[in-house]
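re: ur question from the group chat, yeah i did fold both. here u go
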Amino acid sequence: MPVPVPRQRAIPAVEGGQARAASSTGGPAQAVPAPGALPGQAPTSTSHDASGAPGHGSADHGGFHHGSAHNGTAPLTLLVIEDDPAGSLNVPTLLDSAGKPIRVRTARNLTEAERLLTDDVQCILLDLALTTGGRTAADAEPNDELATLKHVLRLAPRHAVLALTASEDAEHGAEVVRVGAQDYLFRDELDSRLLSRAIRYAVERKRSETAERRLTESKLRAQENARLERGLLPTPLLEGSSLRFAARYRPGRSRALLGGDFYDTVRTPDGTVHAMIGDVCGHGPDEAALGVELRIAWRALTLAGLCGDELLSTLQQVLEHERDNDEIFATLCTVDIAPDGRRAGLCLAGHPAPLISRPARSRAVVGADGAGDPAPPVAELLPYENGGPALGLLPNARWPRRQVELGGEWSLMLYTDGLIEGRTGEGRERLGQDGMVDMVRRQLAQGLRGEELLRAAVNEVRDLNGGELTDDVAVLLLDRVA
């Protein structure tokens, strides 16, 4: 079955640029200066938590929120994480690319940062001199700084992070970026122009990294789905048979490899060649998965020796147990060809009858110049009377097996209704079985056989429809040459 695609996280309203600033008490949010902000800096929103302690924005005590990239309209918000009690970190007045003030919030520790990091924060400025494990910056080892950075990156994986260090060791700064920060700055070189530019760069770089990661994940998921779907298409088991096999498959779903149509061909130890084609109603991934289940069940039951009504009755039980609701059904056509290739048993479960083409009885057609050419093969539908209902429609249904004569040389085409239900112009007229027979006769007269015949048939049906077919199409061809 196709790999389930994980459900995407619901995007909060704030990620669309609608930052929320609601008080948990129901009152309006109040604008107060951010802790550590310089005089004249833009105020930030504050709210109260359940204990009544003031908090900034709509902080959620359950963990860091996933911030969104700056959309160019809402003002940027910077969260500064530093614990210098003297407040020596002087964050200058900052402006974004539109000249709007960048809002600044300050957290003294990671616990407070977790509360202040709301949805409208786009960037984090982390002072690597933050107290670690009860030790001050003077006592901390470089690895402690990286551990703090890694902790912040784990808590805020979708935020841009700038690391602030007092060291002028460029190698240490490069290590910070390798760990996951978007950039690093030196404390003694901090000025408004440099910091504003670094914030904008970090936000845009994080947005680009996120978009690239999502695109890569989407491509990998699509490739994996394609590999799995391709692996679910059947490989005919015809070793030891003189019959030639060809098939064409075109799912109706956009960008899919597998649809609700299914087919298979196997040869049992007694030399009988069994062929099957079916169609689950609907075109989605659930129908495709059910089609694969029915195909695999048919192959297993056939190799176990079941045939005709007994096989179809068992398949109906499989369908009834695996379908999502009672309205799902499947049509099916099975053919079992005798070891000598001259006779076959045919069972139809609400499915269109196969088309057989055989050499014309007259040996040649005399042209105007008196030269003789081989007569084109005769194409016609196999008898379709006395068929049974589609699988899943009627309990305790029966599917009679009809014996048909094939002859010494023939070509047998099994197909789904996607091949005959396409339109033949701008009106409502459909190709139908009669139109398909005429089309195949014409293509046979042109000398098309095997893969070329199937390719031409599917392409012509698509062209007559005026574009891609909305229904799944599966066509299977077995040839016996005397």
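okk and heres the other one u asked abt
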Amino acid sequence: MPLAPTSLWHTASYTNDRGACVEVSEGPVTGVRDTKHRELGALFFAAPEWQAFLGTARRDLP
């Protein structure tokens, strides 16, 4: 499995107007990083792990 995402980075759809931004790069491997601290790197998840996270997050929204 590659250790880097295969698509361009984009701001997550739940980014707020106070600058709490997360960028993602989705594909067979999804990367997640903080837009304010890109130099710290990113977390990477296999597609099934990322889909499981999104499913859980959507169920837990108020």
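fwiw on the second one: The first strand starts at residue 10 and ends at 11. Residues 10 and 23 are 5 Å apart (CA to CA). idk if thats what u expected
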